[in-house]
Specification:
The protein is mainly α. Helix content is about 65%, strand content about 0%. The longest helix is centred in the C-terminal third of the chain and has 35 residues, at about 135-170. Bound molecules: protoporphyrin IX containing FE (HEM) (2 copies).
């Protein structure tokens, strides 16, 4: 088995670390809101849960802009993995997160707009280029894709947690230190 890099405590800039934790909190809230929505009685509470889902979801899309820019500028960063396969697996998982943080909000917005409903962000009406009957047949496939990928994201987060747990507590390479904010 090929052994290469050793652990490095200084992989990510403070901005990348803050963005990581901020967006992680948004992801968890976005998922909790939509998962709990169905348990709520029809009415205001359900509507609020869905609003939290859409507003934080669009927030993720906005946070993705600086995050992707920093990622392109700084590169992947030292993963600190000891084996090549681990490094590749991390690159795939992290890459999928980057795809998802753009694709999911876009699909979510389109799922609503192709149904000829409006989407607002903090009260501002988003432009809708799809509020035409011609787009209506795409509404259900787009919503289904959003929901399917959304459920897969839950699995991806589970894998991410398992990998962090493995590194932190089994391999003991202090992986969390690379994402620590503050001192
Ligand atoms: C709250 C639970 C989470 C924990 C404990 C956690 C922990 C970590 C740690 C320790 C790293 C550094 C790994 C390394 O460099 O080897 C990392 C990287 C990363 N995590 Fe998480 N994470 C969490 C949630 C999330 C979520 C929800 C996302 C979804 C966007 C995410 C996306 C990423 C990405 C893309 C990286 C690569 C570094 C970057 O480009 O910012 N994480 N995570
Ligand atoms: C990264 C951001 C997002 C994630 C991870 C995400 C994830 C999910 C998940 C897991 C579901 C439920 C799947 C199921 O019930 O099986 C869902 C449903 C939905 N999401 Fe999102 N979503 C995000 C952003 C958005 C945005 C920005 C919008 C719209 C502005 C949106 C609109 C919707 C809609 C309309 C549904 C269907 C709700 C229903 O009819 O029950 N999502 N999303």
């Amino acid at each position: 088995m090929t052994m290469d890099r050793v652990s490095s405590g200084a992989s990510y800039s403070p901005a990348r670390r803050w963005l990581h934790w901020g967006m992680a909190a948004f992801f968890l809230a976005v998922l909790c809101a939509v998962e709990f929505k169905d348990d709520l009685p029809k009415g205001h509470l359900r509507h609020i849960a869905m609003s939290i889902h859409t507003q934080l979801g669009i927030g993720i899309l906005l946070l993705a802009i600086p995050r992707i820019a920093l990622r392109i500028r700084a590169g992947r960063g030292k993963e600190g993995m000891r084996q090549v396969w681990q490094e590749r697996a991390a690159a795939v998982a992290h890459g999928l997160f980057y795809v998802v943080m753009v694709a999911m909000p876009v699909l979510g917005i389109l799922a609503i707009q192709t149904r000829e409903h409006e989407v607002r962000f903090l009260g501002m009406l988003l432009p809708n280029y799809f509020d035409d009957d011609a787009w209506l047949p795409y509404a259900l496939p787009i919503k289904t894709a959003h929901e399917f990928i959304g459920d897969a994201v839950i699995g991806l987060i589970g894998v991410h947690w398992a990998a962090v747990f493995w590194h932190q507590f089994i391999q003991r390479d202090d992986v969390l230190a690379r994402m620590r904010v503050g001192n």
